[in-house]
Request: fold
Amino acid sequence: MVTNGEQVRVVNSTGGCELYVGESRDNPVPAWGYRQYVALVSQSSANAPTLSVVKNTLGVTVTPSYSSVGVYRLSFSAGLTVTKTTVQITNTVNRNSVGDFLWFGSDVLEFRTYNNSGTLANSQLNSLYHYVIIQSYV
Reply:
């Protein structure tokens, strides 16, 4: 049982150890101050990206969808505190980019993908080296 301010180590599903601080008995907070969602991103043609979850301490389901050329949305099963949430979609290989993040309320995030010429384009998330990191600070 975790009490207020007590630290506890939790072994995660990959065998790693994470440190939590007791906010309450039933809802300990990660010691680093935020909850996190990490997923690998893949895509074929103009289809909505596919997310393969690596870590989810946010406790939300994230559903990606296609909106229009180069425009995609991430819908969250529960609202996030937008002013305490950061989002990164990384691209470690190609020179294309992801940007123009726009929140619709607290449960939908829109983002856009661009080709090397800076034009909105589909199929820019089709390498194995993209991932999304969402951190919500407590």
Remarks:
- The chain has a mean pLDDT of 77.
- The first strand starts at residue 7 and ends at 11.
- The chain has two domains: 1-32, 33-137.
- The chain is about 0% helix and 50% strand.
